[in-house]
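Need the bound structure for nicotinamide-adenine-dinucleotide, inputs here:
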Amino acid sequence: MLKGKTAVITGSGRGIGKAIAMKLAGFGANIVINDIPSSDYADQTCEEIKALGVEAIVVKGDVRSSEDVANLVKTAVDKFGRIDIFVNNAGITRDGLMLRMSEEDWDLVLDINLKGAFNCIKAVSRIMMKQKGGSIINIASVVGEMGNPGQANYSASKAGLIGLTKTTAKEFAKKGIRCNAVAPGFIASDMTDKLSDEVKKQYYAGIPMGRFGDVGDVADVVAFLASDLSGYVTGQVINVDGGLLM
Ligand SMILES: NC(=O)c1ccc[n+]([C@@H]2O[C@H](COP(=O)([O-])OP(=O)(O)OC[C@H]3O[C@@H](n4cnc5c(N)ncnc54)[C@H](O)[C@@H]3O)[C@@H](O)[C@H]2O)c1
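Answer from helper R.:
Posting the output first, comments after.
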């Protein structure tokens, strides 16, 4: 389905990003893994992807830095000649109730989750315009649609990412570039592992399907949006949440 295509996934050394990279590789795409400079696990992920029979490289860098992002895009194009799929997955949380949230935690989350995606879209859209096509997929969150106590910074970043998705879709539709968002609910990963049992119980109670999501549940929908199966789909937000938000 994706044979000969090139996919770049930010923050893909582990977690949901890694699952996306493995899934797209399973469909035949060559993979560019990005993660922060200290992410030793990204090299291990790269080996696992190569074992699937595709080509893969690691380009470390911080999505907050437009220089790092320029290097990511240039290295991907130098190696594979093109970028067909770009997934903005890198993201963090710094939770705390609004009254206690520091300006620093607000800025950090907005910088990585939202400005990082802006940096990447700006850089990759130039390449995709020259190619006359591409698919950009942003990993948002259901809390960007419904809000969540303790996550003012995170929910604002993900709501912003949804706005950025729709604007990107409108600006580039005529150039053959599609842009969509996937909004996961509660997915078992390192990010959610650190939540208290109380918070986990509350989420669980609100999920009609009666289970937490798996990283593969998100990767499946990303693969659909990356492929021509979604050729007439742009500017959409697809929730992957077991029915948590409907
Ligand atoms: N786990 C969930 O329940 C859930 C729900 C909704 C949305 N999401 C979103 O899914 C994405 C992946 O989350 P995850 O659960 O796999 O988390 P994770 O913490 O396991 O993975 C995030 C990855 O992003 C990398 N990263 C962090 N800052 C970066 C930066 N500045 N530049 C490049 N890479 C950076 C990390 O090193 C890590 O490898 C995030 O955007 C997150 O907000 C997760």
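Comments: The pocket of nicotinamide-adenine-dinucleotide is lined by residues 10-11, 13-17, 34-36, 39, 62-64, 89-92, 112, 116, 139, 141, 184, 186-187, 189-192 (CB under 6 Å). DSSP finds nine helices and seven strands in the chain.
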